[in-house]
Amino acid sequence: MIKRTLYFGNPAWLSVDRGQLVIRDPAMKAAGGSDVKARVPMEDIGLVVLDHQQITVTHSVLNTLLYHNAAVVVCDERRHPSGLLLNLEGNTVQAELFKHQIESSEPLRKQLWKQTVEAKIRNQAAVLARVGADAGLLLELASKVQSGDSGNREAQAAAYYWPRVFRNVAAFKRFREGTPPNNLLNYGYAILRALVARSLVGSGLLPTLGIHHRNRYNAYALADDIMEPYRPYVDLAVVELVNRLGPPETLTLEHKGQLLKIPTADVLLDDKAGPLMVAVQRTTASLAQCFAGEQRKLLCPSLL
Question: Measuring CA to CA, which residue among 142, 110, 112, 146 is closest to residue 124?
Answer without folding.
Answer: 142
